[in-house]
Design brief:
The chain is of the alpha/beta class. It is built from eleven helices and twelve strands. A hairpin with a 4-residue loop joins strand 1 and strand 2.
Length: 343
Amino acid sequence: MLLLCIETSCDETAVAVVRDGREILSNLIISQIDIHARFGGVVPELASRQHLQAIGPLVDAALVDAGLTLDDIEGLAVTRGPGLIGALLVGVSYAKALAFALKLPLVGVHHIEGHILAIMLEQPVATPFLALAVSGGHSHLFRVDGVGRYLLLGRTVDDAAGEAFDKVAKMLGLPYPGGPVIDRLAAQGHGAGIRFPRPMLNKPNLDFSFSGLKTSVLTYLETLPSQPDQQTIANIAAAFQEAAVDVLVQKTLRAAEEQNLERLVVAGGVACNSGLRRAFGAAELTSELKVYFPSPPLCSDNAAMLAVAADDYLCRGARSGRALNATSNWPLMDAAGLFTFVR
């Protein structure tokens, strides 16, 4: 099945064409980073307006890049949620109109579901497996038993990991988005002399918390007698990243042991973090856990990642129907429960 996929959950307009839920024919993204950078974060109204301007031309460009026309498309997938409601509505409205005009089947896909299945676009991973979805909006642990079959094991009780990275970067006077900048500076820093807490690491549950870690960085900055120099900033970045990564890795390893799972998929924007990748690489050498990371382009928000679930759902007869609407809050466990299945 040739799928046209549309993703507009936050500040990237993304369109992809994918064959059979595995072969990427085109995967285009228009980023809004330059527009939001001066505000230090995403402005929802601006994001929605930019999606409106970009989506039509980007669909055309994705089809040209794939060497296809709309007449070749056999189904559509769109991010239904979670995300910024105005941004989501742009993608959902466009996809519904296109599906209606072309008389094509349409499914609304869960954003996190897209992330944790994106690895399948590059290599197969047998189920069941453990998934760590970690980004600016999410820090979740799931047991994955198949497409549409997810069990929530743990989640952040406050800030997501990526959100904490961005907020700490802002405290340090670093540009937006702060996560990649923290990662680069951490490689130049020496965090051995600075010890930040590992929130909830000793709690018996598998939930995360990053708000206290963020506050600890702020408290440390307030103890400094003057504006920190570049090396001090790098040292703070290294110590913060080490603490955040330690919590993510240790909780994930505990989840794998409790669930008796031998495979782990790490997905989402923070999966690009080099410290996180090194830490899981080291853990893989000392355990029986096989760790999978999508390539960086498939870790960040993109449309191709929707195709894995969408192709499976459509081939099973799932249809979202004309009542499909965007939602800013949508538990992943309900992702497969809103379809009408046809024979």
